């Protein structure tokens, strides 16, 4: 097989893997209960890293359960943009 054909085959495989990865990433995300989720589960939310996840837990521990998703706006570092990302 010529080098050109090998290169084309490699490109086709790479494209197939990329498409497969994109399809998997489009599957519905699991729902996360922000009143029960631990640090790792909270980090699955879009825009939430370790610090924000810990801030959620700290706020929840101090103030009790969240009544709505909008209540996350009361947590330090959660503005409208972060809430929009999570709602999607």
List keywords for this structure.
mainly alpha, 88 residues
What is the fold's blueprint, element by element?
Blueprint: H1 3-25, H2 39-42, H3 50-63, H4 80-87
Estimate the strand proportion. Answer: under 5%
Give the total of domains: 2
Count all strands and give the number: 0
Taking the sheet with the most strands, its summary is: none
Corresponding CATH architecture of the largest domain: Orthogonal Bundle
Radius of gyration from CA coordinates: 20 Å
- What is the element string, with H for helices and E for strands? HHHH
Distance between the termini: 47 Å
Count of separate DSSP helical elements: 4
Mean pLDDT figure: 81
Shape: rod-shaped
CATH fold category name of the largest domain? DNA polymerase, domain 1
* CATH level 1 name of the largest domain: Mainly Alpha
Could you state the CATH homologous superfamily of the largest domain?
Tex RuvX-like domain-like
Measured as a percent range, the helix fraction is: 55-70%
Q: What structural class do helix, strand and pairing data support?
A: mainly alpha
């Amino acid at each position: 097989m010529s080098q050109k054909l090998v290169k084309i085959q490699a490109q086709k495989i790479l494209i197939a893997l990329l498409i497969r990865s994109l399809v998997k990433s489009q599957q519905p995300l699991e729902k996360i209960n922000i009143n029960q989720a631990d640090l790792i589960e909270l980090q699955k939310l879009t825009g939430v890293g370790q610090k924000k996840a810990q801030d959620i837990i700290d706020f929840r521990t101090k103030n009790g359960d969240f009544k709505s998703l909008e209540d996350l706006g009361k947590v330090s570092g959660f503005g409208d943009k972060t809430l929009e990302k999570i709602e999607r």
